[in-house]
Amino acid sequence: MARSAVRVADIVDRAIAAERALADLGETVEDEWSYVNELDAAWAARLTEIAATRPDDAVEVSVLEAVEEAIAETEAISDPHRAIDWLSTFPQVVLLALAEQS
Q1: Ranges of each domain in the chain
Q2: φ and ψ at 7, to 5 degrees?
Q3: What are the two backbone dihedrals, phi and then psi, of residue 58, each rounded to the nearest 5 degrees?
């Protein structure tokens, strides 16, 4: 996908996939299963709301780069407890990059 063709909906789709991967890892901590799923559902809903409101808005290169860097950080996480920590951190980074309120 050309950088100039990236839309808010594209970024949100990628962010939700990264969030889901964090949740999958976090779910391996048995005592945290419910908490992980509640966080994942809440943030996926918030991000989906943004995509529904601004689906075709173009994303500037700096926003794309910021979200890609945050996604790369999530992909480097292998510890389930750290993944749980990032379930709240990562979507906040995406919201900030997209100039949205949490």
Answers
A1: 3-97
A2: -115, 165
A3: -70, 145
